[in-house]
Predict the structure.
Amino acid sequence: MKFSTLLLLLFFSASSFAQVTNVKLSGMIFKTGQDSIFVSQAVDGSNYQDFFGAALDEDGNFEMEGTVPAPNYYVVRIGGTRIPVILRQGSEIKLYGDGRNLDQYLNIVNSQESSDLVEYLRLVSDWQRQSNEAGQAINANPAIADSINREMSAKFNQFKSQKNNFVARHGNSAALYPAFRDVNPQQDFATYKSLASQLIKAFPESPMIQQVAVELQEQTKLQEKNNILAPGKEAPDFEEKKIDGETTMKLSDLRGKVVLLDFWASWCGPCRKENPAVVALYNKYKDDGFTIMSVSLDKNRDSWIAAIKKDGLTWPNHVSDLNFWSSRVPKMYNVRGIPFTVLIDEEGNIIKTKLRAHQLEIELKRIFEH
């Protein structure tokens, strides 16, 4: 099967098991050129452990019943062909297919999640095939590289869309495991966490998913460690130019006060809509020790100053290097969209981030009215 290589990576056997699981498999897979069929699991890159098996008659019919060490991910092995299946306690799965081309002609009955799993692996296998063919074509004729690369770029975008659509259609399904393994937690932790959580909910008895739960805890701790804006961490200090473009101020100049570090711009509609509520909170709590330091992503000084005046942003702590999205301080704080806020306590430590006006009000009440 074309996605058999993927199975070596996806279904590596777990080292410990939860319980003995009784399962039955039957069906007809014709023209395999084999006389036996097994339920197996990968133990390394090239070897499999067979748990039980049965004979294939001359028409490809088979029936087999046995036990596997735990509810988990397995493969049905016919010679060099591997069919991925998800086995739970009492599973009774039927398999029908053409042994000459199971990648295209395979029907799994009584296990929708196994069928969905095969659907995803087919999708990935098809993309790998197209990518390999494109590479071979370029190697054979480098002159067509640009044309093929443009074509493959469009196909890759389609492939990503298909993968995203699969994930959206199969929420809380054990079939999401290979999609989960496709995600790099350092690059997209939100998706990684979402898929891990769905798998833990869908198949908690699986040793492989139990390992996912352990990995999620480890990755969460790593994310918190690497997150410079995690609550409790000291807010990164900086020095930036004020409105006159000459004098500067530091964030640390405001130590002793509760500070809202507010990233905004005159051209940012959502920021401007938030400003009246933020102004009201500033006026309400400024005498209690609350202040605001506004960092603008503007690139035009006149527009910046005009917006400050029009919106009544009367606090004196306005800074910007007027470099738009290339501004130094927003980059330091990993700002990827505005409005973006960081609430900082009197000692300069982060309380919370991404607070909109109504959330800010709740936090300020907690701090000043407790």
